[in-house]
Structures are given as C-alpha cells and as structure tokens.
Amino acid sequence: AAEPWPENAALYQQLKEEQILLSDNASSLAVQAFLQMCNLPVQVICRANAEYMSPSGKVPFIHVGNQVVSELGPIVQFVKAKGHSLSDGLDEVQKAEMKAYMELVNNMLLTAELYLQWCDDVTVEEITHPRYGSPYPWPLNRILSYQKQWEVRRKMKAIGWAGKTLEQVLEDVDQCCHALSQRLGTQPYFFNKQPTELDALVFGHLFTILTTQLITDELSEKVKNYSNLTAFCRRIEQQYFEGHEKDTSTIAARSSKRSLLR
C-alpha cells in the first residue's frame, strides 16, 4: 500500500532567474514532472547553495520527512519504496527498453548540455561563468566557476567528448532526438497511454532546451525538427503544469524565454 506523502515535501534547486544552468534546470524539471505524474505535490525551493546542500553534490534533491534524496534515478526508487510507481504496468522487456532509452538521454542530451555549458568558450564566458558564480562575491565567483569547469572538462575527457567539436555534439543530439522520435511515433507517451519516468526525463530535457535562451538557437533547432517531440512537450506542459500557478513548480514561474504554448 502507498504510504501517505507529506504535505511539506520540498524539492531544492539553484536560483531560477539568475543562477541555474541548462543541465540542472532540465534535471530539476524532470523530477518535478515525475512527481506531478505520480500526483505527489512538492514545493520547489530555490537556494544559491543547493548544489552544496545535496548529498550527491547534484541537483535537484528532495527533502521528504527526515530523508534527503538527490537525482531522478534514486528519487524514482525512493518514491517506489513508498508505493508509488509509473512503470509497474510494464513487462520486463518494456522495463529494460525504458532503462535503455533513459541511459541514451543521460549519455547524449545531458552530456551535450554539460559540454555546451562548460566546453563551448563563447557560452562559458557569456552565460555559464556569470550565472554559475552570480550568488558569490569576486573572486569566489570566478574560483568556483573555474573549479566546476575543470571538473566537467575532466569528465568530458574521460568519456571521450573533450575532442569533439560543437557540430559533432549537435549531431549527437540530433541522433538522440531521432531515436526518441522513432520510439514515440504517434503515441501520447513512450509506452502508449500512460507516462513513465522516461517521459518525465525526456520532457525535462527537451522542454528546457526548447525554452532556454542560449547564444544561438542551434540546440533547440535540433529538437524542433521533430514535430512529435515538440507536441509531446506541449502535451505534458498542458496536462501536468498548466493551471498549477499557485504551485511554485509551475513552468510558468521558470526563467525561460517562452512557453511552448505561446
């Protein structure tokens, strides 16, 4: 039986307007979408030091009762242990397929977002450094930004992305979107009528890419090439976020250049 969900459950992320970056915004929105799909209310709390408060050093994280859990995968497991699951109706083959597509999104879209933020020099100087360090005084703002940049670039080197050009990264994004578009087809969700955690994850990343102002629109244009993916984002925005204006998790409250519906 499902355990009662506390009314004061909270999700923590960085400051929306001036600090949070594309990848963290996408990850946070994916968790918000997942919890909305489970019909589990959560209050979004923005903190400048959210990254340092997180047990894994990554956002978002949720604070439920006396427990703190960070990132979508562990949050899905935590929620499942409380009796709430979106993927119980899937058979073993479908569950394996869902996990494979989630890996694809994390390996391609999330990595591409991190690459763009920390390895594309123009984006780093004009967007990433100013936003990431915004809550802190000089020189701490620069020190923390360079520290994070070094950490991400070391990761990129380890997975073989450091030598990629921006064009190659955008091509990877296109391939990922093509695979997702093929799998979705004309269905409302990836596994037909009901959303799963895959839908939440894909929505978090694609919606954020489509609505975040970057130096150029090259990244969002890759997503816009697939009309069923943009329609999918609109559908989830309407179903799970519209009409939740009083709830701070609403997309309308996000720092974005536009809603998909306008």
UniProtKB/TrEMBL annotation:
Family according to the record: Belongs to the metaxin family.
Domain Metaxin glutathione S-transferase as annotated: residue spans: 174-236
GO cellular component terms, A-Z: SAM complex
CDD domains the UniProt entry points to: GST_C_Metaxin2 (cd03211), GST_N_Metaxin2 (cd03079)
Major site of localization recorded for this protein: mitochondrion
InterPro entries attached to this UniProt entry: Glutathione-S-Trfase_C_sf, Glutathione_S-Trfase, Metaxin_GST, Mito_Protein_Transport_Metaxin, Sam37/metaxin_N
Cited function: Involved in transport of proteins into the mitochondrion.
Pfam families, A to Z: GST_C_6 (PF17171), Tom37 (PF10568)
Domain Mitochondrial outer membrane transport complex Sam37/metaxin N-terminal residue range list: 28-148
Places the protein is found: Mitochondrion outer membrane
Segments forming a coiled coil: none
Keywords recorded for this protein, A-Z: Acetylation, Membrane, Mitochondrion, Mitochondrion outer membrane, Protein transport, Transport
Subunit structure: Interacts with MTX1/metaxin-1. Associates with the mitochondrial contact site and cristae organizing system (MICOS) complex, composed of at least MICOS10/MIC10, CHCHD3/MIC19, CHCHD6/MIC25, APOOL/MIC27, IMMT/MIC60, APOO/MIC23/MIC26 and QIL1/MIC13. This complex was also known under the names MINOS or MitOS complex. The MICOS complex associates with mitochondrial outer membrane proteins SAMM50, MTX1 and MTX2 (together described as components of the mitochondrial outer membrane sorting assembly machinery (SAM) complex) and DNAJC11, mitochondrial inner membrane protein TMEM11 and with HSPA9.
Official protein name in the record: Metaxin-2
Gene coding for it: Mtx2
GO biological process, alphabetically ordered: mitochondrion organization; protein transport
